[in-house]
Amino acid sequence: MTAAVVTPTTSTGTTTRVPWQAKFLLLAGIWGSSFLLMKVGLRSLAPIQISSLRILAGTAILLVLFSTTGGRLPRDLRTWAHLTVSSLFLTVLPFTLFALGEERVSSALAGIGNATTPIATVLFALLILPSDRLSSRKLAAILVGFLGVVVIMQPWASAGRPDLLGFGITVLAAACYGVGWTYNRRFLAQADLGGLSMPTALLCVGSSMMVPVVLVWWLLNRATVAAPWSLHTPPHHSAALPVVAVLALGMVGTGVAYMLQFDVVRAAGATVSTTVTYLIPVVSVVLGVTLLGERLAWPQVLGAAIVLGSAVVIGLPARRRRVRGH
Q1: Are 103 and 47 within 8 A, CB to CB?
Q2: What are phi and psi for residue 98, nearest 5 degrees?
Q3: Distance between CA atoms of 197 and 239, rounded to whole angstroms?
Q4: For 102, what's the count of Cα atoms within 13 Å in the CB-facing half-sphere?
Q5: Tens digit of pLDDT for each residue in 211-240?
Q6: CB 174 within 8 A of CB 65
Q7: Do 56 and 203 meet the contact criterion of CB atoms below 8 Å apart?
Q8: pTM of the predicted structure, to 2 decimals
Q9: What whole-number distance in Å separates Cα of residue 34 and Cα of residue 248?
Q10: What is the C-alpha to C-alpha distance for residues 274 and 118, in angstroms, rounded to an integer?
Q11: In angstroms, rounded to a whole number, what is the distance separating the alpha carbons of residues 143 and 235?
Q12: 76 — phi, psi (to 5°)?
């Protein structure tokens, strides 16, 4: 896959040729496969290495595309300060946490954890967006969603349940997305210059943060890691596939995906764009089961259905009150 499938909006107002619905479906496939690529990458790379290489590769591909579109980056320090907070919750933290969680749980289950993003988005919107109100329907959906998470984790079972810490980390990663996109709505909606401006700026900030993070990680692990780029490939295995998987995760699953995500947000709105979360676990489960031989117990399947159902209810438009005639 290449970025040629999209003609991005430029700062001059040129419209896209590809319908946002097609980008939406493509985005679901790309992000749904990211959990498979992280699991493959973990064969030779540590979670911090995966997230840093992912962000750097995504930044590189967007800078190349950005240079060909003639766009411009934000110039005021206030916008860059908000971008720093946004990038922390949309790139650095979730990318690292998902890879960390997948050290303990399957890629299919990590994709299911990602489905809790709409629940987190609603909760953080109440804190960050003063105009948002929590309806009784959304409150019920949030409570049901939490019930689904409990069913997935099976705290009552002593055996056969997923690793609670690992799945909890993936839910925390999904919560970071909820914070990040809500923060974007609150502080960066008016700063978007169109085209690749915002996703490129977001990943540039993420890259600048990951460099010191990976260096600190290496300094703390120098006894076992020779260099920040050292790989831990098992005997009789090649590091080529894990590295290629993470590069694909960065260039396509991050760089191209964030370009598509911002296009969908601009065309259909932030609420519609978050519904891509409903399709991501379906893709991650299918790929994990068919390509990696992963298996899910019935409580995970039931819990996933409960979480997805609550996410759908949360994403439904608000009911309009009937106005009585005079």
Answers
A1: yes
A2: -65, -45
A3: 34
A4: 32
A5: 999 999 999 999 999 999 999 988 877 889
A6: no
A7: no
A8: 0.87
A9: 9
A10: 7
A11: 47
A12: -85, 145
